[in-house]
Amino acid sequence: MTAKNGQDENAVETANRQPAQRSDDLLTVCAVSLVAGVLADVVHEGLGHAATALLTGAKSGVLSTVAWSSEFDSRMVAACGTLANLAAAVIFSLLLCSANGASVRLRFFLLISASFNVFNGTGYLLFSGVTNFGDWAAVIAGMPVHWFWRTLLVVAGATSYYAAALAVGIGLVRYVGVCRNDARRLRRLLFVPYFTALLLAVLGGLSNPLGVQLVWQSALPGSAGAHSGLLWLRYSIPRGTVPARSADAIGRSYGWIGLAAVLSMVFILVLGPGIRLER
Question: Which of 4, 18, 49, 135 yields a CA-CA distance of 20 to 30 A from 278?
C-alpha cells in the first residue's frame, strides 16, 4: 500500500513538471507574423531610409519592400534604417512589458514585432561587417582604417544579436506565457514567424524596380539571416525563466487573419513594385 502511494505521488510530480499541451492556431500565428513582418519592413525602408532622405535633402525617390532609391544619399540615410528598427524594437518591448491585461494574441504580436525589428537592426551590423555590403558598408565606406570599422561592426553585431536573442527568448516565456520546457510550442511560435517572414520578403521583393537580383542580395539574406535567431534562441533561454502571464493558447482570430491578408496584398502588389514619394 505504501509503495503504491509513493508511485502515485511520483506520477503526480512528474505530471506537474510537464508543460500543459497548448494548441495554437497556425493560421492566426501566421497572420500575426505577417502583420509584424510588414511593419518591420516599412519601419526600415519607409521611416528609416525614405523619411530621413526626404527630410535631409532628397526631393523624391522610390520606396519598395527591399530598398529606398533616390539621387540623394548620405551616411545618415544609410544608417537610419537600422536605427529605426532598433528604436521600434525598444517601443514594442516596452509595450509588451506593460501589456498586463492584453490578449495572448496581442502579446505575441508585440513580442514578434520586437524580435523582427531587433534582429533586423543587430543582424544588419553583423551582415555588413562580414560581407562589406549593404547599409552599414555604405556608412563606413571611405573611412580611414577601414578594416577596424568592419571588425567593429562584426563584434558589435554578433554581441548585440546574441543579447537580442536572449531577450526575445525570455520575453516569449515571461510575457507571452510559453513554458521554457514546452519544446513543441516553442518551435511552432518561433519557426512559423521565421518562415512566414522569409516568404513575405521573397514575394514582396520579386517585382521591385531595381531588379530581381536584389531579392538574393538583400531581401533573402536580410530575412533568412537576420531572423535566424528564431531557429535557435530557445536553447539560450536561462534556466528558471517562468511565465509571468497567462499561458493561454493563441486561438483563431479572423480579425488578425483579415488584417494580415489586406496588409500582405498591399505589401506585395503596391509596395513591391515601388511607389514614388516626393516632398
Answer: 135
